[in-house]
Amino acid sequence: PEGSMPKEIIHAFGYLKKAAAMANTELGVLAADKAELIAKACDEIIAGKLDDQFPLVIWQTGSGTQSNMNGNEVIANRAHVINGGALADDKKVLHPNDDVNKSQSSNDTYPTAMHIAAYKLTVENTIPGLTHLRNALAKKVEEFSSIVKTGRTHFMDATPLTLGQEFSGYVQQIDNSIRAIKNALVMVAELALGGTAVGTGLNTPKGYDVLVAQKIADLTGLPFVTAPNKFEALAAHDAMVELSGALKRTAVALMKVANDVRMLSSGPRCGIGEIVIPDNEPGSSIMPGKVNPTQPEALTMVCAQVIGNDVAVSVGGMSGHFELNVFKPLIAANVLQSARLIGDACVSFTDKCAEGIT
Predict the structure, then answer these.
(1) Biggest distance spanned by C-alpha atoms of the chain
(2) What total of structural domains would you count in the chain?
(3) One-character DSSP codes across 96-154
(4) Which CATH number do you get for residue 78?
(5) Residue 140's pLDDT is what?
(6) Residues 6 or more apart from 27 whose CB is under 8 A from it?
(7) pLDDT tier at 62, thresholds 50, 70, 90
């Protein structure tokens, strides 16, 4: 349904709940057999096998409490069935709060899920998509290195340059965008887990925050660490705002690239027509033979959406009143959509347009 909790958040809860159970057992506050059952249920969440058990939308309490409780109950119920029990049993092997949520609060689990989800999606989808486009454009730099054309400033003719030199500017823009995103990920790698309700770490065993972050890093293969200050990690989401800003500046760069491509390919008879883009499909239902720059147009719409998402993230980020930011689901959903859109759109633009430019 509209506004569903992103699947990346659901799967991130699988990682963090499994890591919490492992850390709690190692620190002597959770029985090993219970941790094993929690881990088995979490593995199914991570694999996407229980996605249909998470019906909640992002429009809920701003701390994400309902989704945290949703996860606790799904894990407890699924673990009970894995252990041979039935959902109708009055007494179950695990308690959602006392066992699955041990040493945790919604206030530190949801922001942890946000960071896990955003980091994973960015490195697995966004950066590879941008790199794919960057490499395709870099090939065009070489291919067009001897084609001299008229430069344009203010939409007016200027001094000459090569088409390859023009495209080299696009490559540099994308390189800069990738660097900005990677720089933002440094703080996204810092996790709130261990701060519990307000950042003091109430009800956690000593060393839990460092250990659980290490467990998450081991499970995901990503460089997660515990946040140095849990009060900031719960009350503010500056790391997510920074990542959104990096995605926004990437959208700004991609908007320029896509607009240049569609204007340079305009015509074919009465436009600029300095480059030719692939004819992917008929462009008109009334004008035979007309072909539209669909891929550049699709990419520019994605860029507009990402820029809009950044506004929502900015408003959400500034709404961290006192000890807790209560716009967490909004921030997460918008950052994840931006990361997903940029990665997917870059792959589509590369495969169906950029690689075929002549």
Answers:
(1) 81
(2) 2
(3) IIIIITTT--HHHHHHHHHHHHHHHHIIIIIHHHHHHHHHHHHHHHHHTTT-EEEEEET
(4) 1.10.275.10
(5) 99
(6) 205, 206, 207, 208, 211
(7) very high
Containing 17, the helix (H) or strand (E) segment is helix 7-26
Reply yes or no on whether 284 is catalytic: yes
pLDDT interval class at 57 (50, 70, 90): very high
Residue 95 annotated to the active site = no
Average pLDDT over residues 131-159: 98
Distance separating alpha carbons of residues 94 and 76, to the nearest angstrom: 5
Q: What does the pLDDT average to over 168-189? A: 99
Tell me what the mean pLDDT of segment 335-347 comes to. 99
Tokens standing for 41?
């249920």
Q: Are residues 91 and 114 in the same domain?
A: no
pLDDT average, residue stretch 212-231: 99
Torsion over CA: 263, 266, 271, 274 (sign): positive
Q: Are residues 186 and 77 in the same domain?
A: no
Q: Can you give the C-alpha Rg of the chain in angstroms?
A: 24
The secondary structure element, H or E, covering residue 242 is helix 238-264
User: In whole numbers, what is the pLDDT of the chain averaged over residues?
Assistant: 98
CA distance 69 to 195: 17
Of these residues, 63, 146, 154, 237, which one is catalytic? 154
Domain boundary among 76, 100, 124: 100
| Structure tokens, 135 | 């490499």
Looking at the chain, the whole-number percentage of residues with pLDDT higher than 70 is: 100
Marked catalytic residue, from 63, 132, 237, 284: 284
* One domain for residues 232 and 151: yes
Which residue, 46, 73, 100, sits at the end of a domain? 100
pLDDT one-digit tens code per residue, 265-293:
999 889 999 999 999 887 788 888 788 99
- Torsion angle of the four alpha carbons 336, 342, 343, 345, in this order, in degrees rounded to the nearest 10: 130
pLDDT of residue 287: 85
pLDDT at 10: 99
Tell which residue, 39, 31, 32, has the closest CA to residue 15. 39
What are the residues facing 4 on neighbouring strands?
Answer: 57
Query: Is the same domain home to 135 and 223?
Result: yes
- Check residue 102 and give its pLDDT: 99
Half-sphere exposure of 316 (CA within 13 A, CB side): 26
